[in-house]
Amino acid sequence: MENKINTNTLTSVMKNWQSDMLHFGKEILRPGKDYGLINGFEKPVLLKPGAEKLCKAYDLQVKNLDCVNEVFNLEKPFIDVTYKCVLSSKDGLNLGVCEGNANSEEPKFKYVYSRTNYKPPKSEADKLKLEGKGRWLKSGNEWLWTEKRLNGEIIGQKNTIKKIAQKRAFVGAVLMATCTSEYFSQD
Question: Which of 33, 54, 84, 161 is the most exposed place for a label (fewest CB within 10 A)?
Fold first, then answer.
């Protein structure tokens, strides 16, 4: 006996799901808190609070969130961490699986900006900004010039790097489990 899919029923179910998802996105998810707009991405980026709300809405459980690879080299210094997240339904069916990685070579960890007393002329500041060597930072009512330098405190970033890898694995698994990659991307 052949198992036939009723395309009218399937189409109706998918239209209802899409309508519910759009309503959820407009009524529950908040821009800047649950998702954000980031340069270079066509779609909004799903943030951790939004992923948590999607988990709640879809009644998903974190089955596993395990470190699958960790490099911690004090000599270089270098940190590289990969986590794997598995999300399941209430009845234990795995619906989303994703690995997330973070490492100390990413610009947000590798470099820091240090305040200086130097105030370069506009043409020099523009050149230094283009070269990625500095930027202006507003402090109170004043603009201060900051210089980009290598972060000498990478080891102190270990916990943050681990949390970023966990978050990336979790958000990726949520996107997979909820079929929402049409609406959101991942950082």
Answer: 33
pLDDT tens string 43-91: 899 999 999 999 999 999 999 999 999 999 989 999 999 999 999 999 9
Distance CA 32, CA 46 (A): 10
In a domain, 187, yes or no: no
Q: Which helix (H) or strand (E) holds 54?
A: helix 48-58
Q: How far separated are the first and last CA of the chain, in Å rounded? A: 46
Say if 104 falls within a structural domain: yes
Q: What span, in angstroms and rounded, lies between the C-alpha atoms of 166 and 50?
A: 15
Predicted pLDDT at 17: 76
Integer Cα distance of 36 and 180 in angstroms: 15
Q: How many domains does the chain have?
A: 1
Which domain range does residue 94 map to? 8-178
Q: Give the Cβ contact number of residue 56 at 10 Å.
A: 10
Contact between residue 33 and residue 49 where contact means Cβ atoms under 8 Å apart: yes
Give the β-pairing of 61-73 and 45-46: unpaired
Predicted structure pTM score: 0.83
Across 7-11, 52-56, 166-170, 175-179, least confident range: 7-11
Say if 160 falls within a structural domain: yes
